[in-house]
Amino acid sequence: MSGEVGATVEWEEPPLILDGGEVYRNPTEVKMSQIVLPCHANHCGELSIGQLLKWMDSTACLSAERHAGCSCVTASVDDIHFEQTIGVGQVVSIRARVNRAFTSSMEVGIVVTCEDLYSSRQWSVCHAFSTFVARRPEAGKLKQVIPHTQAEQIEYSLAAERRRMRLIHAEIIKDLLTNCPSQPADEHLQCSEGVPAERTRVESVELVLPPHTNHQVSTFGGQIMAWMENVATISASRLCNAHPTLRSIDMFHFRGPSHMGDQLVLKAIVNNAFRKSMEVGVCAEAYQGGEPLRHINSAFMTFEVLDHNKEPCTLPRIRPEPMDGRRRFQEAIARKKIRLDRKYIISCKQSEVPLSVPWDPTNQMYLSFNNVSALKMLAARNTWVLTSEKKKVSLYTLEENHMLSFKVETHVAVGAEKVFVLLSDLKCRHKWDPHYKECEVISHVDGDDTIYRVVTPSVSKGGKVQDFILLASRRRPCDSGDPYWIALCSVSLPAYPPTADYNRGEVLCAGFSVEEEATHTKLSYYNQATPGVLPYISTDIAGLSSRIYSAFTSCRTFLEENEDSVTSATSGAPATLGGHVTGKPL
Ligand code: COA
Ligand code: ADP
Q1: How far apart are alpha carbons 237 and 514 in whole angstroms?
Q2: Which residues line ligand 1 (CB under 6 A)?
């Protein structure tokens, strides 16, 4: 099992030795190790995912409670992808720690590894992110997490991005489901063959007893997940008359609490069967006595059936029920697209991301997330080397994974918010950066994201001018002490293909961080050099040219001369300054 939305590091880094000689240990870190016994396994001798989810949830809950100093409940769990099974006799180790605390909620990162006791072989199993909410008697903000190591710094920074995505997740799904196309499915809907979906329907009830609850008598989220996984597995088996393997669980939210004495009604049905996988939907509702049912949670799980070679088998088609069944059948197709976008855009490692990701409004949130996360990860590297300093502009380089990146750092006597607003509008960049010859807005996607076409001079003498299609994603601070971010990366648009007159350039990861300091604002510009910009920067790094220094000296002057043009109205507004939209279809 592996992979997770926005997953980054595995927490393996050299030990940090504190001043007193002690090895640093994250105070919120909690570890649990379990030997997989037959009672934890299914009839195939594999650890039941429901059991694993319970262990992951309790470890994460203890970590959250250690930080919060009070009882906590699971609010949500991000997508989890499972790629391997764990056998009886193997040891599962779970480590959880709080990546960041917000007002009443905390993001907990969970890393699962497995160990074969007979061969001492150890391997990484999966990582996940859960959000816990503190149940505190008094209101007030949770104490902040202070990151110490580079890995903690990265996770702290990315936690703000993941939170943003989580909180709009329901909205994204709703939008996509509203706009999901019906054509491809119609053909299947007409099909009279296929297993009737009704045959896969499961309904089961559970009584919440003391072992299922914490000391505040709230039901453990992990227990509910385990019950949901159980009914989903039964439903999936009914489609294929075989043992199904759970591959992924979509991000979900615990909508309301459940308590000891509740009866939990769990309902599952196969919403759609694709060629090699199926989506099972599960809904959990709770009630006590004669009270009406309370909707606690809905989850969507993807199952496969594996043959002897662990290859997925072709599945029978499903014949959905009319009305709700047909709607869910269509919605499962839309969710499959979202799943693929999230898995391949967000969770792939930075080095595996293709240079220009195709722009598609339906995956805008993921591209924006990826854009900002890549910049935050580049900025958090602790191996930047100061190469030279001129006119109060410092140039740093970073050589990592066969990539050369550079960072330019300077300080300005202008407030961070104003610097952010002035630099957010790429159409103004030509005023200080001679490299930006032309810049047009292709689309103001929303307040945070804009797509531009930028034209720059040729990097080689007599060569063609270059053009770039850039997605600019902006973020204001999530908390005091956070920087502002303006991230840039290339996207490709069918309406703006490369043309013969221009060399199409690509930006893998670039952008600014703007940080308020005691007397000045620290401005940092980052760029992960692609072959197109390499000749431009290598002359500066080698000391043969001063173009970077003069550009950033001009940038300082531009900011100081224009700070008064940023009115309070503009500074509170979305981070874009005017600019026409061409209206050309994307
Ligand atoms: N994912 C992550 N965090 C979420 C969230 C989601 N989908 N929805 C809300 N939150 C966070 C908010 O960001 C907020 O955090 P902050 O204070 O750090 O900004 C916190 O939850 C409370 O926000 P609020 O607006 O008061 O949310 P709410 O009224 O929707 O309540 C829960 C959120 C989680 C407290 C509520 O839905 C709940 O009690 N759920 C059941 C939790 C539970 O009992 N779980 C165990 C299994 S039943
Ligand atoms: P929706 O019905 O809009 O899909 P719900 O949150 O009510 O959303 O349910 C989530 C999933 O749970 C459904 O997609 C379906 O797969 C399953 N489900 C819901 N109700 C039932 C039911 N009565 N019987 C079987 N499965 C159900």
Answers
A1: 53
A2: 73-76, 102-105, 131, 133, 166-167, 218-219, 221, 224, 253-258, 296
